Amino acid sequence: MNILGDISTETFLSEYWQKKPLLIRNAFPDFEPPVDPDDIAGLSLDEDVESRILIEDVDKQSWQVRHGPFSEQSFTELPKENWTLLVQAVDHWIPEFADLLEQFSFIPSWRRDDLMVSFAPKGGSVGPHYDLYDVFLVQGMGQRHWQLGPKCDDNTKTLPDLPVKILESMNVEHEWTLNPGDMLYIPPSYAHNGVAVNDCMTFSIGFRAPSEADVLQGFTDHLAAELNNDQRYTDPALKSAEDSPAFIDDDAIERFRQILQQNISQESQLKKWLAQTMTEPKYEELHQPLEEELEWEDIESLFKEATLLTQNETSRWAYFKDEQQVCLFINGQTQAMAESKNAQELAQHLANARHVNIEDITSYLTEPDCQNLLLDLINGNYLYFEG
Ligand code: SIN
Ligand code: CO
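That is the input. Now the predicted structure with cobalt (II) ion docked in place:
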């Protein structure tokens, strides 16, 4: 299924991705949302789930934010209109939403953040704002009226003294009412405001992009952790400083630059850090390995009974290649991998799709290296059997 309508993936990437907004009518024809508003409210009662309610006082241009977990009573106390419930990372809790994310596989999966669901009665919105990440907004139920404005930056004025960032004003450049199954793509920094026309649910597929400061800090912390304290600045070719002992000369600067450059240009460290960082779980505590470790004999028959092997909703996968060797990372951890060609192939199949048909991997099941890989991934609770 092409969720981009008439637009090819290539055209989307070259003309829209990170460049300009795009509305796709009927991206999901006959869309049946996997949840109803009660399910979403139900999730927000759970203490493991990240949720917020935003209430707007339209007359006073003021906003209130409440943080979950909520109680049933929190909902009975809400006004009739002009509020929004936002529940984060619903893909972690509802497998159908994790499946929905697979439709966006034309963007690397390690760029994804999560799928957020919002529910709002008439008038509900989070106000005119901009985000620093790409987002696809799928209309799940009811209608939402979207206004889109220009690109914003740090100098764009926001309303003072509010618990949320709301733009002081927004020049509306596009306006669309979205119906169930319609989808809007908004690149980072574009002003937008979506107001519920009636009881409505919106599913936001959000991506993430680390700040350059985070990249620099993260990578250098990673490098520093692997360096030995004995490795120090040296200057065996030092020239006499007699004339100006306080002067930091160009030679000294060059020697420091060398330390930085030699470390930063370690390609294999960069790959490792990137895979580790981009697979770090959103909520560390949500993922637990299996309580009782299984042996191959315990699971062998399941490959005949089940139809699918599925990535756990709380797991993030990525791999890179070092020479020809596949290095698989899940949830920030490197996975031990045999050098066998088959095990390497299997690892890529498993990482690249949320579901793998067991039928498609039967040829690997007889090889001990592949068995060990599968066993590790199942014991780690990164994969489970379905069907
Ligand atoms: C919403 O779903 O109400 C808002 C999503 C967004 O503007 O990013
Ligand atoms: Co937004």
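The mean pLDDT is 97.
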